[in-house]
Amino acid sequence: MWKWIESKHDTLYVIFRVFIGLLFMQHGLQKIAGMFGGMGGATAPVFTLMWFAGYIELLGGFAIAVGFFTRLAAGIAALEIAIAYGMAHASAGLIPLVNGGELALLYFFSFLTILGHGAVKFSLEWKLLKREVF
């Protein structure tokens, strides 16, 4: 079984990258377009931190999912999540399960993984540019 998993390393990683990107996009759609219940039934007010975060989540998630400037998008997304964790969760306690920050930490470490691996060859960046630029 391990041999099969090792032989499918790139494919499994691409599934992970696309999945994380699409999930992160949903947070942006929630803030920017009011989808999935929005923010209490509304969207983020324009030019607020939540509005900027929504665009980072929407565009960054899309870039990660399709594999275009993947490392750049993952780095920006990791920074955004780290700031969000500090602002919204860390002050409520040290333990992520208690302070509600476990999802933010999962995203943060997922983005660090994506930052380290990049897009691999199954990506829009490889398709269009024949290499990874970022």
User: What is the makeup of the main sheet?
Assistant: none
Total strand segments: 0
In percent, how much strand structure appears in the residues?
under 5%
Shape: globular
Return the domain count.
1
Q: Between the first and last Cα atoms, what is the distance in angstroms?
A: 33 Å
Number of helices: 7
- Helix % is 55-70%
The average pLDDT score comes to 94
Task: Describe this structure as you would to a colleague.
By secondary structure, this protein is mostly helical. The protein has one domain (2-129). It has helices spanning 2-7, 9-32, 49-66, 70-88, 96-99, 102-117, 124-129. Helix 4 runs antiparallel to helix 6 (102-117). The model has no long low-confidence stretch (mean pLDDT 94).
Give a quick rundown of the structure.
With 134 residues, this protein is mostly helical. The protein is built from 7 helices and no strands.
Keywords:
mainly alpha; 7 helices
Layout of secondary structure:
Elements lengths: L1 H6 L1 H24 L16 H18 L3 H19 L7 H4 L2 H16 L6 H6 L5
